Amino acid sequence: MPADSRPSAHDAVDALLARSLAPAPLPPHEERKALRTALRISLTDAARALAVSPGTLRAWESDRDPGKPEQREAYAYFLDSVRGRLEEQDQHTRATAVDRGRPGRTAPTASAASEPPAPTAEPHDAPAPTPASNSAAPASGSAPTPAPPRSTRQTTSRRRGADARPDLLAAIHAHITSALDESGGDIDAAARALMGDEPNKAGRSINNVMELWEMSRVGTRYDHTVYLDAPDPLVRRRKDGSPLVWEGRVKFTNADPALVGRPVTPLDANAAYLAALSTAHLPVRQITHNPTGVHERHGEWSWQDPDCYGKGVDLAGIVLIDQPAWPHKDLPNPLGDRETRGALWVPTSTYLKLKDAASSRYGDLIDTVPEIQEAYVAPGTDAMFKTLASVLNSARTRAISDGDELTRAYIAKMYSVLVSTMGDSHANKHIRRPDWERIIRAHAFANLWRKAVRAHQAGLTIAYAGGTDELHLAGDVWTARRDGRLLFRQGPGLAEIKTKGAPYTWRGKAVRN
């Protein structure tokens, strides 16, 4: 080797010292997402700039740190740059306010972005109160007195309420337009790109819907757990390979011989999983075993208290219960078609269905709410996917009205793959929440069960009920009333229902269309 090409002793020392330097400092996890969203940078765009997957970046913002030194350096540089840009915006905002003769209002700053997340006992998705601004103008020649800094969550909450829906609808339109442009206007090719084909069965739908959800979450007061440390009941399976947690899938055929020969109308509940996404109660953070706590408004709470589920603290997760007796041969069992008895793990959406079955509103169908023997739960919210579901429903409704089959199918694909891959699917690397998947699926089954019971209360006869959306009824379904109101409205909306094929004569078995 030529002498001038040999590394000097100083070079070797410099390289050793470089390897020995302390890792680049990173802000707390809760500050990282707040910084990014304060500058309105999407998760996908930031991940692309950092050359990592959105799921990896989501983990860095939740509970993990970059493992490779070069990734940590790049991420630290990104966050420092964002903080610097926010400080520049803050200075510009205050300077502009002084020029206009009014007190400055600070933009989100690094200190605001570092605000700790809301307590888990108050996870509901509502904007925090905005501090009152200083109404007095600064004295001439004196430095302006800045108003108390608003937190990033407060600032983005306002944006979320006012601007998130147009942004999300525009993003959906951009997804479809891009696919059509790439395919030269070929609708079939665009559909394959968006919704998948062999070997990629999901196409872009998973990444796209996760990006939309990330956009919809801007401004929330709390950070959710991305990768669940799944408890044993969510991991174990039965001997037949089915999950240990029972979701209560509806499966009912009326065996009454008096029903034979009567006309039956097959009905189809619209977008069952989209409706479930909108209203399911989900645990915000890690579910834990038999937790207790103190809520700032509701006082002490415990996993054993039925009143802590579905309201108040709104505990959500999975619970172990005994199966109640079900003597009603003309109604579907809220636990589905169970062939074995004994203790059963169920999602809390199934437990809420049993609470309804024990209520006077649903006819006191069971004597009492089953006692909870064991639980893996955490305080929850029914707003986790509410904004996203609302936007998807708006786009779906418009597509149906316009006869836009590509958009309608794309929306259906997005919400279905979101539910089916958020658990333990390798196809979705953005999130691992098997508890959410079980709860949402069970909630969809529960929604159909409630429709069936309400139909029975309105004087209709249930011939068949199955899955999340199929309900076959004998009687005049369009004039039936419950509590003085029409039971069903026909149409494509989430609160409406449509026929699934022509009416038929009941012969003891459902005619599936």
From TrEMBL:
<dbReference type="InterPro" id="IPR010982">
    <property type="entry name" value="Lambda_DNA-bd_dom_sf"/>
</dbReference>
<feature type="compositionally biased region" description="Pro residues">
    <location>
        <begin position="116"/>
        <end position="130"/>
    </location>
</feature>
<feature type="region of interest" description="Disordered">
    <location>
        <begin position="85"/>
        <end position="162"/>
    </location>
</feature>
<protein>
    <submittedName>
        <fullName>Uncharacterized protein</fullName>
    </submittedName>
</protein>
<feature type="compositionally biased region" description="Low complexity">
    <location>
        <begin position="106"/>
        <end position="115"/>
    </location>
</feature>
<feature type="compositionally biased region" description="Low complexity">
    <location>
        <begin position="131"/>
        <end position="155"/>
    </location>
</feature>
<feature type="compositionally biased region" description="Basic and acidic residues">
    <location>
        <begin position="85"/>
        <end position="102"/>
    </location>
</feature>
<dbReference type="InterPro" id="IPR001387">
    <property type="entry name" value="Cro/C1-type_HTH"/>
</dbReference>
